[in-house]
Fold these 3 entries.
Entry 1:
Amino acid sequence: MGEAGKKQVPLRLSSKLYDEIAAWAEEDFRSVNGQIEYLLTACVRQHKKNGRPVPEDFEQDRE
């Protein structure tokens, strides 16, 4: 089993999103998994701070 207290979650991403996260992770010297965890943590903190998990002008590409 992995690190204590961590859960495994299956996640499906588009190829485009995966590639963008992988490139960002490389810039930040993180693994893709580490980058996803970092981004989710930042989003949860932002949501707790002001009730919004992402900026109001956020647009998500639909594929």
Entry 2:
Amino acid sequence: MLELRPNCECCDKDLPPDSMEARICTFECTFCADCAAHALKGVCPNCGGNLVPRPVRPPRMLEKYPASTKRVLKPDGCTRAA
């Protein structure tokens, strides 16, 4: 099950569970749409995989399976994976 992380790893923008702006890779690294498109060019800086829109968990399921509250942030910002 997806953690639904609460923020962009690059810029720390809030990404609530219903955000259409969240992008993830297969390891669930999480970025906002702006960082994913511009700074990262659609490539995860951690694994090199592609970034895709994160699914939205229905509200009734969020009650039973809440989103993560643990923030992950790259202290030096993001650069595209080599």
Entry 3:
Amino acid sequence: MSKSHILIIGAGPAGLTAGFEILQKTSSIPVILEASEIIGGISQTAEYKGNKIDIGGHRFFSKSDTVMKFWEQFFPTESGEVSPQKTDLVMLIRQRVSRIFYLRKFFAYPLSLSFQTLQNLGILNSISIFFSFLSAKIFPKSSEKSLEDFFINRFGKRLYKTFFKDYTEKVWGKKCTELSSEWGVQRIKGLSLLKAIWDAFLKFFPSDDQKSLHQKNKETSLIERFLYPKFGPGQFWEHLALQIEQRGGKIYMNEKVTHVINDDHHISAVITTNSKTGKQTRYEGDYLLSSMPLRELFSAFSTVPQETKKLAETLEYRDFFTVGVLLSALSIQQETKIVDHWIYIQEKDVQVGRIQIFNNWSPYLVKDPDKIWIGMEYFANEGDFLWQKSDEDLQKLACEELEKIGFAQRKDVEDTCIIRVPKAYPVYFGKGYESFSSLRSYLDTLQNLFCIGRNGMHRYNNQDHSMLSAIEAVKNIVSGKTEKHNIWQVNAENEYHEKK
């Protein structure tokens, strides 16, 4: 390939992976255009007074050897020779600990048939759950039209209503009957109650595969061992951005793409508007790799059928914010002094969806090791009553709910902050998603456009899936391939890049 510019929209996992791959496999120069002033997208690490916040919690694991090797080439795994005390560029090894908080009690996650679980549920409820599960296995729903159908077929109606329904509806702001079963296929894939029980049984007989970080044979939701950068996920992506620039790549911050110049089959340029100066700049390139939200991409096209554009405008997103709360070390009650990385809050009487304990992800995320630094995660829609609350009101709400569920008292809160993330989750409902195949068909007619990443594909990808979509896109560029099926396959088929 002759030397040329390749334009990339977004400096998150997909965009940065694409930029590095282009430098490694072509003689082209990647030009990365990032709308914000932050590297890493939703995989960023925010900072407040020396305390770091992982937006959403990012385990570094993958069933893809390609992705694992990509991470490890920059950040070696901690060992006898590689110690986090000796170097900053290191992956910590973590054993996942997460639980569900329901009825003011803790339940193991993934769910297990432990004595503690049965005791918390009660004998009658446990028996009811068991027979409900048997009924779902004997008389499954013939077609899974909704996410509710998906959950019931795998866990039974009683367990679904106990542990899945309320939390899922809190996250998405929709009833499970209104959500597509496709969400379950993407996020839970082959997980079932039987697999969770079998996995719990195998823990008594640990194998080399269970101890390995390359856990290819485990369902994603059951994976326990993972890697984690010393200073959070953003540390890795900031380092990768530096590597790209040192190799000649260009990264421009605060450059929001507002216009994409295209005809029926080709994109020739994009126009950005600088969020600080208002200056517009035109960038030309032979290829465009886009991880910007599809709704915004369609709006930016200079030429697009009006009907297609209107359909894209109906694509929906779920927004997200984290309230960082700094606690005195003695503030959490003994029974809730926890080692979890995160806790799912299933309670109906509070709006918080999940709580992260950043000390347990990495002690280096917390400025003062004698303090407890947590993130209370809320899900909202831009413009709704929760999103429109002032930062002060949201911080007050978080402190009140923290006390309400018995984790800490308001007087023990030393400081708070808030991080808002719009369009954090592309959603699997609405007219735009239901007709997504027609949107994809139009995108595929633009031969030099490759949509990558979570928002670029409107798919609830993990960061390794976003990386794989970028890697596949660069392969297509190198080979001159304009057909995009291999990219759309990523995180769409159970076998793709996941099994041996």
